[in-house]
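Ticket #4471: complex job returned nothing on first submit. Input attached below:
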Amino acid sequence: MLSSVRRFFKFIHWLYLQYLLNTALYMLEPWERVLFTTLLFAIISTAVYSALVFLPVHVRSMIQTYS
Amino acid sequence: MIDTNVLTVSENMKIDKNNYKYNTTNILNHEDDLQCEEFEETPLYAAVLTYIGYAILCLFGWLRDFMRQSNIEKKRGAIDPNASLDFVPLYQSYESFYTRNMYTRVRDIFNRPITSVPGPQFELAERVSDDYNWTYRFTGKTISAINLGSYNYLGFAERTGSCATDAIDAIKSYGIATCSTNSEIGTQFYHVELEQLLAKFLGVESCIAFGMGFATNALNLPVLASKGDLILSDELNHCSLILGIRLSGACYQTYAHNDINDLEKKLRVAIVQGHPRTNRPWKKIIIVVEGVYSMEGSICRLPQLIELKKKYKAYLYMDEAHSIGAMGKSGRGIVDYFNLNTDDVDILMGTFTKSFGSAGGYIAGKKSLIDHIRVNSHANTYASSMSAPIVQQIISSLHVLNCPEGKNRISQLADNTRYFRQKLMNMGFIVYGNKNSPVVPMLLYLPARVTRFNREMLRRGIAVVTVGFPATKLLESRVRFCISAAHTRQMLDTTLAAIDEVGTELSLRYSTRYQHRRLKDI
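Support reply: We reran it on our side without changes. The output follows.
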């Protein structure tokens, strides 16, 4: 039970390392990593929020126009 | 165009994981594939990720430069003192941008000081940085590591043994400095002995030795070529050859790496058209190649080059810096590796730094050539002659190479090379070059993976040399392993296990031609 929790945390740590390596954040200082991650999170969350709010309305109006 | 009735060329079409046909040309000579080399293409996702990584580094570089410019942050690097006055800028702007913002961030993986003899295992001085690699502080401790970065191909970098005792005796008999140049009063009898011994070892008429390998290329190409000549050099030639070619004043063209057809085309055009504006014929044409290219691990195509040079009456200059001692059945270099005649290569050049465990370079060839170089070369008339222990080390190592112990070293190196390369390729890593070359470049592509690989290997007690831009192309950052005859099978196994572990953690198995396997499954 404890070993599988530990393995899960190790897996999360490995995923974080892959994120750092593939975006070259591994070479930057900690405050630069925080800055980049904040910007990336802000952009992605804005996109997701807009999709969640506007997509049903747009899809409904498209169906109404073409049917 | 070239006669291929002596050699048979067979092209095998193989198909990799993505159903992409790739071509491995096996040029068979005496039923033995001496020229079998592979250079796998960069996978698309690796190229994209590398560009993304460099783009992000560039963005943060601009941000930091802006902060330094507007005095939010202190300027730590080299500053042009006269930037405001109308002087020509001291630093080229892109080079210093790269140095400040990308190289300095990971500078701790380069230029590590060592504190012992660079044998198969050595001691590194431990250093830490408190301000992200702008300054270092030595803790006083040393790290013991397996050495895969030194050019110690035959294992002559050792503190004990016959070579070391002979060198110490030479210091006791002759001192260290000769205090003169070769042309004045600095030629000692051991210099003459070295040159005669080396000429006999290589199978040439005569030979001349210089104190520095880089200077041998840079200062002797101007002796051999001058204005009115044409030099055709491989595109991946070493900096010393390029410097020598430029200093000579001859016209030069580069041809694609190891591409004999491209070289032949350029030769034909050069002979027919002559000088660019006057169309006068060239006084002579020299082809400059290296025996083993140290960043690619590839071997020059000597049989085809010799055929080409005989057909078009050009001269061949071969730089055997990494291949002398390391290649061939008796360690006599690429000429021995292909079983050819040394008279066919006009100018053989090599260094003592790599396989002989010493320092310096030599040029070998016909006696008339060497006499001409002896009189006209700046490296002979102005440079101080080689020091006694250095020469004695080379003489002792040449004596060792003629004994059975030397033959053991050569075969041990060949064995280690083939074993290491085969295992790496079977695990699914991309390794460039000929399967017999002791230089093993493994591709890593992303800059962050390169630094992580280097640091993780050092944490596991293995010191490797990783190279990135500008020594290699931007996309193709690599780690270069230099196999030595002094490495035991156990050291290679430890290394392979570490590479396997780190390679799995960082997803470094890029190959589509070989299956990805863990070490325990091979």
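Chain A touches chain B through 15 residues (CB under 8 Å). Closing as resolved unless it happens again.
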